[in-house]
Specification:
- Helices cover 52% and strands 12% of the residues.
- Helix 6 packs across helix 9 and helix 9 packs across helix 10.
- The protein has three domains: 159 residues, Rossmann fold (3-Layer(aba) Sandwich), CATH 3.40.50; 158 residues, 3-Layer(aba) Sandwich (Rossmann fold); 61 residues.
- Strands 4-2-1-8-5 form a five-stranded parallel beta sheet, with helices on one face. The chain has a four-stranded parallel beta sheet with strand order 12-11-10-13, sandwiched between helices.
- The radius of gyration is 45 Å and the shape is elongated.
- It is an alpha/beta fold.
Length: 429
């Protein structure tokens, strides 16, 4: 009995040691994570998601933290990097954190401290703030707010913000662009639209709208015009085709294929059969947004339950009135994330070092050439000096030869005269 108890203790000790080693291994290999990270887990619709990311990006830039965005439970219905790329920011942004990175973050000291070890196991619930105006998300178990004070810098390596809530996301719209494949798909779809049309947006799922009264109000402004009707409720589009009898109603084909909408459930909370259907539905929503932005004007109405325009309508209006922002959203080939910029800078540094090495080697070769040239020039000058000396000696030898020839000529004459005198003397004798 005693031996079984000891064996169980040894087994638990081994399991504990393995757990410690596993945790240490995770902490020792950050896999692209910085020392200080802000994990943003946005919720809500598309506008809410962008507003929460914008808020976290501002904080990350102010306090120099890496921004990790996990948008799978948000209005994007997937990773941020599936649909957008980030540019014009001073911090590194991870828009598609993988399982390994999330496991590592789950072992770090964090704020709120109650979420450590259970980042994606927290059960969110909602409550009103003290003034009762906004809804905040809290952890159901610990009742801690799933956020932090954005005016403070925290010593913990990880801080977590998991909230919803809308507002103005215009700053973020200047810093993001569509991912390449998304931009290609949306551009192809928008190319089928006419060059001039009026945009109309109605939200009518979880947030209801008296769209029939709204259509009656705008009817005089639509007569004889092409109008793009966008809505999260297919019934609204069907009604618009019947109601606007003196206009041409066009759409971006938001409801494609055999996708079946659940009644009164917004697009970002619909059930999707597979990942491809999920992404296609999100691309359709973005196509609606950009199509409204291209319109000459956008007409929207307030949601009956909140007496204000939906966040999607506000983004569409902003893009319509700021066409340059709309253009930058579609210019994804020119957009670069911070990590891409850092990689480019590293590549440029490597290229600069390689160029400097090449210039150094070229300079050495040039110096050797100049040195060889100087040596060869010295040899050439020596040869030229020897040639001049040889020419001088040749001229001197020629002068002596001429003198010798002159002397030989006088001796010949004397010998001739001697021979003549001798011949004359013989005759006289």
């Amino acid at each position: 009995m005693h031996s079984n108890s000891e064996n169980q203790k040894d087994l638990r000790l081994q399991q504990l040691q393995k757990s410690i080693h596993s945790t240490a291994d995770l902490q020792a290999k950050p896999v692209g994570l910085a020392d200080r990270v802000l994990l943003c887990i946005p919720h809500g619709g598309l506008n809410d998601t962008l507003v929460q990311i914008q808020q976290c990006l501002r904080y990350a830039e102010r306090f120099d933290r890496q921004l990790v965005i996990d948008a799978r439970r948000s209005g994007l219905m997937g990773h941020f990097s599936e649909f957008f790329v980030m540019h014009s920011t001073s911090v590194d942004v991870i828009g598609s954190p993988d399982k390994r990175q999330l496991e590592i973050l789950n072992t770090w000291d964090s704020h709120p401290e109650q979420v450590r070890g259970r980042l994606h196991e927290t059960k969110r619930t909602h409550c009103k703030n003290r003034r009762g105006k906004t809804t905040i998300s809290v952890d159901e178990n610990s009742e801690s707010i799933l956020s932090f004070d954005f005016s403070l810098d925290y010593p913990q390596p990880l801080i977590v913000h998991e909230q919803s809530g809308g507002g103005d996301c215009s700053d973020l719209l200047h810093k993001i662009a569509l991912a390449d494949d998304v931009a290609t798909t949306i551009t192809a779809r928008l190319s089928k639209l006419p060059s001039e049309y009026l945009g109309v947006h109605v939200r009518n799922t979880d947030l209801m709208t008296d769209y029939k009264s709204f259509f009656r109000d705008i009817y005089p402004h639509t007569m004889g015009r092409k109008i793009l009707v966008c809505s999260d409720d297919n019934n609204v589009i069907r009604y618009a085709r019947r109601f606007f009898d003196r206009s041409e109603v066009i759409t971006t084909d938001t409801f494609q294929g055999d996708f079946e909408m659940l009644d009164r459930v917004p697009l970002h909370k619909q059930h999707h059969k597979n990942d491809a259907e999920r992404k296609a539905q999100m691309i359709s929503s973005l196509a609606d947004l950009l199509a409204l932005g291209r319109a000459s004007d956008v007409l929207t109405t307030k949601c009956s339950s909140r007496d204000r325009h939906s966040g999607f309508s506000r983004v569409a209006l902003y893009l319509c009135r700021n066409k340059h922002v709309l253009a930058s959203l579609q210019s994804s080939p020119l957009a670069m994330s911070t990590s891409q910029v850092r990689n480019l800078v590293a590549d440029l540094d490597r290229a600069r070092i390689e160029t400097q090495d090449s210039l150094f080697q070229l300079r050495r070769r040039l110096e050797k050439y100049e040195e060889t040239k100087q040596k060869q020039g010295l040899k050439l000058r020596r040869l030229e000096d020897k040639l001049r000396e040889a020419r001088d000696k040749l001229r001197e030898a020629r002068g002596k030869l001429r003198e010798a020839r002159a002397q030989n000529s006088g001796l010949g004459k004397a010998l001739g005269n001697y021979a003549a005198i001798r011949a004359w003397a013989r005759r006289r004798i």
